[in-house]
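seq:
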Amino acid sequence: MTISPVLLFTALLIFAAPSWSIGIKVSDSRANNFYMDALTWVLDKSGADYYLINTDHSISSQVRKVALVQRGELDVMYAGTTIEMEEQLQPIRFPITRGLIGSRIFIINKKYQKEYDEIKISMI
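struct:
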């Protein structure tokens, strides 16, 4: 049985002694990245002493990121999940966007509200 790097990562956080420092390899080092901010928040809440290791991997497709995790070149990645992916990797279930990715709102200029009020939508 092979233990995936993601599973190893979660086990280390649970069993790490407070004096240990855990290096976690990630590929996305963009400033103001919501997903990396969420990862940092979760790691901070874990109480583990950690540091992020930004790899030289450029931002890539989800398929490539899965392969990088399987080879141990990344320790953690964020992605939507599928049954197939969960058979290959151990998910860390954390609802980063709380299911809001599919929600959209429309914003208009107030001065055009009357015109928008007159729009009638018919379902075909």
